[in-house]
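During the reporting period the student researcher (J.K.) took over the structure-prediction task from the postdoctoral fellow and processed the backlog of single-chain submissions. One of the processed entries is reproduced below for the supervisory committee.
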Amino acid sequence: MSLLGLVLLSPFLLLIAILIKRNSPGPVFYGGKRAGKGNKPFLIWKFRTMYERAESYQGPAVTAKTDKRITPLGHWLRDTKINELPQLWNVLMGEMSFVGPRPEDWDIAQETDREALTEILSVRPGITSPASIIYHNEEKLLEGDDFMTQYYQNILPDKIRLDRLYVRHHSMLGDIDIILWTLATLLPQLASIRIGEGNLFGGPISRFVRFNISWFAADFLIAFSAVSIVGVLWRTTGPIELGIPKALLFALGISLLFGVLNTILGLNKVIWPRAVPEDMFGIILSAGIVIVLASSVNLVSSLPVLPTPMLLLIGLVAIVGFVAARYRWRLLTGLSTFWLSRRNAFSVGERILIIGSGEESEYANWLLRRRNLRYAFSIIGIVDDDPRKQGMRVDGNWIIGTLADVPHLVSRHDIGLIIMALSSMEKEEHDKIMNSCINTGARLLLISDMMSAMQFWLTKSGRPDAAAEALFKKSNESILTK
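J.K. obtained the following structure tokens:
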């Protein structure tokens, strides 16, 4: 693409070169030392925009709008970013990419924090980047005699932050978005509009493909599979005139209508690994509406495409597929947890026993099932003195005994950590249970301390008072030591 750009733009580049030579004496191009991938130096090529004088090379590495080193033509070349076009040669040589962190001046780069610099220079620098879009008018932001101080204090730290975000989250579709945003900033009508960071790192193209096209493709395959499976089963009861072309067309119609309804209901923007239960009901509702509409059209048409019972069965299978595709990781995790819970020999991580099945137990269970914690800990079960709960299952865990059974359970299941999740009880009873747990040799964690500290912080307006801070500190120490 860079070679094609150089060939197509060669007449225009030649014209700019002639204008530069006529505007002021000196070379057409300027080569500046920059930090490249792996912190290897390279020369970045630009059209010369400064007078060919000693101060042009000895002055600050960053320029301001009022910089007297810039020629009249140079101001126009910088405003339109035409001076950057020779960097197509750097891309062709493999020193740069179209999109990537803008290469910083070599001396400034070597003063940057080592960790940040290593991360930023783990990819090729680019002609454009999110930081260069946000600061496309950088020269106008810098003014006065101390503009280098302004750059170091206000602009450079934010550029580094944006470059690190780009390195962590870049993608091909995201790069296409950044190229389009760059072109948009060259238009005078859009140049003054500040583009939000969310749109920079997830622009219209990447969002559309991620939230619509990718799910449409998956839903189409699911719908076609549902039609095929039900069609094969239906053939065992009698002949049916469907065929692959009609099946594909039918699946296409279902998936298109399903995608439109999901967009209207906002379901296309749900991050499904973190979805809540009501999102699942939204998918069921959307798919149900599609099937009802399809059945209605099928009934009123002069030549029904499919028998109504068959169409409803296709809809049911498709709904199961739509939900399973979106909750696939939760289903797999639930299946593996179900299997492991019945194969205690395969339990991994620290074995935990929770005392109590109330609100604090629910909080402890939620916390221990979050992300990596679920791999580090295995909840063996819950103990509770309520006779009505014995042998029951709560929050995905079995109630395996009473408080009197704690020593036996710790020994039997090799419990390493006991979580105390009881709140409302007499002090004597509380101390008795505490001593019983301590005598087992297992470590003890009090959820009540942590929850009380949180409540203090949440109920106080502004800065917490000394008592709240002391309790929070005490809770942290208790968690770390016990």
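The committee noted the following: Residues 26 and 327 are 64 Å apart (CA to CA).
J.K. will present the remaining backlog at the next meeting.
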